[in-house]
Design a protein that fits this description.
The relative contact order is 0.23. This protein has a single domain, classed as P-loop containing nucleotide triphosphate hydrolases (Rossmann fold), CATH 3.40.50.300. The chain has 7 helices and 5 strands. Strands 2-3-1-4-5 form a 5-stranded parallel β-sheet, with helices on both faces. It is an alpha/beta fold.
């Protein structure tokens, strides 16, 4: 890692691309914490009786602020970490850009064929009862109705080092290349 500055590895990508699994794997490879946006939201859901996902979700904005509050606290403290969320440009960049003052931010974009992503979303919607908080069934309905395209994703436009990782079958590039990307000095 760069001397004196932590690295913030930002794992982004559309739904179903394997972001969370990749973020956890990277954190284990590097030996640092992973901060997962959906897990923060799930914790908020548990404290919100009667919560229903979808539409104008009242937890989205509080989750965004809690997520970036955690990232800011940890990077200011000098903690190297992995942060996982969709990180689409319009909503996320205004919150991500200030963190570059505290950490060397590196973007890792998870990708797969949209058909693979769709299958992953369908599988997790049926297997994980906690995923109900994240509207996977609503997303599947929107995809089927043509209201959402998994390949219409607006990447972060900040001028930061970036690496695309295909998660279709393992990780390509592999763990060594991902670690080298995160540990190279700027």
């Amino acid at each position: 890692m760069a001397m004196g500055r932590p690295v913030l590895a930002v794992v982004s990508g559309p739904p179903g691309t394997g972001k969370t699994t990749l973020a956890r794997a990277i954190a284990a490879m590097v030996g640092c914490p992973a901060v997962i946006r959906d897990e923060i939201k799930q914790g908020m859901v548990l404290a919100s009786p009667g919560y229903q996902a979808g539409g104008n979700d009242p937890l989205n904005i509080p989750t965004l602020h809690a997520f970036f509050g955690v990232l800011e606290t940890l990077t200011k403290a000098g903690v190297t970490l992995v942060a996982e969320a969709a990180f689409q440009d319009r909503l996320w960049t205004p919150h991500l850009e200030p963190l570059t003052a505290h950490a060397d931010v590196r973007i890792i974009r998870a990708t797969v064929d949209p058909a693979v992503a769709h299958q992953r979303i369908a599988t997790r919607a049926g297997l994980d009862p906690h995923r109900a908080a994240h509207g996977d069934q609503n997303l599947l309905d929107d995809i089927a109705a043509g209201r959402h395209a998994l390949d219409a994703f607006a990447d972060i436009r900040l001028d930061l080092p970036r690496l695309t990782v295909d998660t279709s079958d393992g990780y390509h590039p592999g763990p060594e290349a991902i670690t080298a990307f995160l540990t190279k000095t700027a």
